[in-house]
Specification:
By secondary structure, this protein is α+β, with helices and mostly antiparallel strands. It is built from three helices and five strands. It has a single domain (2-105), classed as Trna Endonuclease, Chain: A, domain 1.
């Protein structure tokens, strides 16, 4: 089921002019849902879906611990890819709601080392 919502996020990013670099990139520190490029930025995107608001907005699920895991995974990717190291880095969160609407928060958080 999660793949469906990640695909909605990918489709959205492509419509917005992003180039998809990688999806579901696993590292020893965790997974990055989507890695995209736009302008001079490499964008690490976390996709969150909620079928109801019982547990809050999907954006709230990207707490400090999740931000730290994403940051560490991104650092691992940076350290192993010379091309990506030449770009600016940004962390975005894409929330997908029950009605399949999307909210994209650019630069949702800073690196959490």
């Amino acid at each position: 089921m999660g793949a469906k919502y990640e695909q909605l996020a990918v489709d959205y990013l492509i419509r917005e002019g992003y180039q998809i670099v990688d999806r579901n990139r696993y590292t020893p520190y965790g997974e990055i849902d989507i890695i995209a490029k736009k302008d001079n930025y490499i964008v690490f995107c976390e996709v969150k879906y909620r079928s109801s608001d019982r547990y809050g907005d999907p954006l709230q699920a990207v707490d400090w611990g999740k931000q730290q895991r994403i940051s560490r995974a991104a650092m691992y990717i940076f350290s192993h890819n010379a091309i990506i190291r030449k770009l600016n880095c940004r962390f975005d969160v894409i929330a997908v709601y029950k009605d399949e609407s999307i909210r994209h928060v650019e630069n949702a958080f800073e690196f959490q080392g």
